[in-house]
Amino acid sequence: MSDRPRPPLLLRVGIVASIIVALLVVPLIVRLVTYAASGGSFAVEFVPVFLLVVLGVLAGAIAYGLWRERRWTRVVAVVFWVVFAITMAATQAVVRRIAPGVALVSALPFVAGAWWYFFRKPDVVAYYAALREPKGPA
User: Fold this and answer.
1) What would the DSSP string read from start to end of 25-80?
2) pLDDT for 15-38, tens place per residue?
3) Are 53 and 31 in contact (CB under 8 A)?
């Protein structure tokens, strides 16, 4: 029996959610590759798709880190939500013609929520603190 703590429920759900997000991005990678030959609008097509690909890569890293119980996962998760906020702002600015600053402010609760969850929520902080403890001989 392992003396490692069990990850909080949301972290366990996060493994599955991160895998799904990472897999959903695969078609977007194909779109990025074909973009070079398309001659489409850079701001309208390339930037949002590129940011979505970055989100997929980050989601894959999060899934791996959560599965392998890596401490760096919480930093990557917050970075994921920062990139999500930028993606949301860029998409709203281009598609809906909303000022980027306004769109970015609307996405900040996601970043703040992720930061609070990973760095302030007591059970999550305790879980990551337990991962830091050196493992002695079995």
Assistant:
1) THHHHHHHHHHHHH---IIIIIHHHHHHHHHHHHHHHHHHHHHTT-TTHHHHHHHH
2) 999 999 999 888 877 766 676 566
3) no
